[in-house]
Specification:
It contains 14 helices and no strands. It is an all-alpha fold.
Amino acid sequence: MIIDTTEIQAIHSFSRLESLKEVYGIIWMLVPIFTLVLGITLGVLVIVWLEREISAGIQQRIGPEYAGPLGILQALADGTKLLFKENLLPSRGETRLFRIGPSVAVISILLSYSVIPFSYRFILADLSIGVFLWIAISSLAPVGLLMSGYGSNNKYSFLGGLRAAAQSISYEIPFTLSVLSISLLSNSSSPVDIVEAQSKYGFWGWNLWRQPIGFIVFLISSLAECERLPFDLPEAEEELVAGYQTEYSGIQFGLFYVASYLNLLLSSLFVTVLYLGGWNLSIPYLFVPELFDIKKRSPIFGTIIGIFITVNKTYLFLFISIATRWTFPRLRMDQLLNLGWKFLLPISIANLLVTTSFQLLSL
């Protein structure tokens, strides 16, 4: 049997072409993920710098000023310092749980970023149940905190982990009911559809005006979920030393630090998507039709403008969250649980019932 050498060469070249196509496909699949991770990292560094500058202004003191221009590299310097510090392990603790806890907290929050629409054409996974998938995944973060507290073999750490779990359960229910009201109002649970439902009337089409009570409940619950003052009971320093992170050092302590800011950025992005119109302009179409036409003709320009608008709205809400932390005193644990169960839960249920009634009457 005689085999033509040209046929063999053609087969080899075809197989090489197919393998190159597979490699390029994998690379193009990873590019959006790495872009998102890079953007999130820069966003966290900016938040840390903003918080230090805003807190310095509120307390009338000088903020970071030596590491880089205006101290903007201070967070990077702190992260580098933690990276080279020694990771200490408790001698009688559960080392597996102790090691896994910070990773569970960070990974669960990072996965939630996959369903956030930064712009109309810039989202990793446009799912029909996107907002509820975010709630489900981010609910795993307190499990990591509880694992860290139990694995530390320290009563203060364990109490901090228990507080984190109790706080998450208390505020996750009104939090979810507020999101459900938005889903009913928009007839969809997809973040993209929710943003599109707010795009008709510009500034006046935001869900903020149609769901003011739900917005307040969502705002308070998101601060409690992020464990920000006045809701930072799991790590109250005058009671629990540092709560669930008491025994941690080095990069593992840094992971908790990063997780708190990742969660804060995530909550601010979802406030933008659910209540502030997402990537859409805050002015009606009738006023500037030329700009809308440019966005339709040039998808890349429209995507960049959408990301710019989303980030601006997000950092506006972040300013409110940061100013709240440095303005209000910390609540007691009983006050925190009473606020969640006795006030926010009934209000969120009533808001959901009213929203459902209006939706049924409008059919």
